[in-house]
Amino acid sequence: MPPVLDADRAAAIQARLDAQARPPGSLGRLESLAVQIGQILRTEAPRLQEPTVLLCAGDHGLVAQGVSAWPSSVTTLMMQGILSGEATVSVLARQHGLNVQVVDCGVIDPLPEQPGLVLRRVGAGTADALLQPAMTPEQCRTAIRNGREQVASLPGNAILLGEMGIGNTSPASLLLARLAGLPIEQVVGPGAGLDAAGRQHKIQVLGQVLERHVQATEPLDALAALGGFEIATLAGAVLQAALENRVIVVDGFITSSAVLVAARLQPAVLERCVFSHVSAEPGHRLMLQAMQADPLLQFGMRLGEGSAAALVWPLLESACRALNEIAPLEKVMARGA
Fold this sequence. Notes:
Elements: H1 7-18, H2 29-41, E1 52-58, H3 73-83, H4 88-96, E2 99-106, E3 117-119, H5 137-152, E4 158-164, H6 169-180, H7 184-187, H8 196-212, H9 219-226, H10 229-243, E5 247-250, H11 253-265, E6 273-275, H12 282-290, H13 307-325, H14 329-334
Parallel strand pairs: 1-2, 1-4, 2-3, 4-5, 5-6
Helix pairs in contact: 1-2, 2-13, 4-13, 5-10, 6-8, 6-9, 6-11, 10-11, 11-12
């Protein structure tokens, strides 16, 4: 995958910003965001078109080991809430004019067909990774291919990554520990509400999972052994979106784990990624550091769903509008001549 960072284009975009009727650099991070978006879209006048929140959902066999405060059935309930427009990401997406596409990558209790729901099921939840690989190699390849195909079918030039899956902070933690070489106790957090004892149990279980799959060190091997259907689908989505030079807005810990896998396969995907925030989930900061990513916000959020990606979307739009619509200083000064 070729890089999109282009020194000449970046300089040309920055020159346009510096020539505007305001002190150079006065928009701070908004300027560097405009430069990045322009490079991703390969134009000095970037415009974001038809963005979609791609929200991938899946269940996890590892939940049977008590690593989550909630049962897997909640995944399906939350998917329905998103499709009904009642969930957090639904509200934020509606506010900002974002399309939301919920992809069933493999939940245990599937929903009936309805508007906004896409069926890309690989199975009824992954296997219990403490007992066997979470996915077979073929399931992992299928999920990645599903993500690629789903992105290829979307209009526009931007996707926002979202996810839903009870227990999916566990595979995200496992992938971070394995691919970044970090101790599991450093990366494990409370997820969706574990207390201190629950977190210690989670650390113990995930440590055993890593020991069981000690040979799974390459990105795809680790993804199959430790990951989830929704994470693998998102990894495929990231690879395809990057190949098409779409802007990729990354949400939190889970979606970042998919980006981590994709980046280990194709490092240039990171040039196409805008990281929305750093989550309160402790592993997320370490994951961002592993990718040398600089998130836009630190709001203490840890919800997932794509909520932070939707929240920062207006910043991306503002960056493009500021670049394209603020008058040059020369034009303003000419009015007084």
